[in-house]
Amino acid sequence: xxxxxxxxxxxxxxxxxxxxxxxxxxxxxxxxxxxxxxxxxxxxxxxxxxxxxxxxxxxxxxxxxxxxxxxxxxxxxxxxxxxxxxxxxxxxxxxxxxxxxxxxxxxxxxxxxxxxxxxxxxxxxxxxxxxxxxxxxxxxxxxxxxxxxxxxxxxxxxxxxxxxxxxxxxxxxxxxxxxxxxxxxxxxxxxxxxxxxxxxxxxxxxxxxxxxxxxxxxxxxxxxxxxxxxxxxxxxxxxxxxxxxxxxxxxxxxxxxxxxxxxxxxxxxxxxxxxxxxxxxxx
Length: 283
Known about the structure:
This protein has 12 helices and 2 strands; from the N terminus they run H-E-E-H-H-H-H-H-H-H-H-H-H-H. By secondary structure, it is mostly helical. It has a two-stranded antiparallel sheet.
């Protein structure tokens, strides 16, 4: 896809994202998909559907443009991302917010002999990550290197979900990291721009949703936060070699460990710089 094609693609996705916002909001409210936020306000939940719809709009654009060179790579990510969205959406519909952390889901299983929706989501994420990583390989990738990619995708998916407890927090992390990865990949590692075409819809959707989310007028939901995390993990996987991914995985494991024993929000509030960044733009 050339520069002109990419620019027109961006305009179409951005316009569609803006157009979808009020329609998705009416849909969520009409079907009683509302939830109390951290401030006790009842707002629509599930705006992650905008990200998913833009993914499929991108597929339609590529089909109409007959871009065959991107088809295989794009379709593998698209199908895996759709699985992530659907299990996140299901968790939004029937999952329990009272069960938190790995230990919480494990205790729930011990007490009820039934998997929580969070555990089902973890298994589904693992399967989607494994399918994408194995399918995306050239056939010569060592199995342990594939394992690194799978672990990265699973941890990053859950990390953005952990952050999504305050307005704008997950979107800020996604946009900042996507920008950084894009600059490194395009200008320092000299990767072809086509590598990043599959993640363009989610990135455009994140920008479209930012004002609504940080203003406390709507929630991404697990469907949106998980899709952001999975996409960010995929960006890292296609940009950096395995040894860089290992360092990132170590940081994500540490973050999960801290979240298990404490509160990420309290840790952010105790750090002046992180607290300022977290509150920036929030109403």
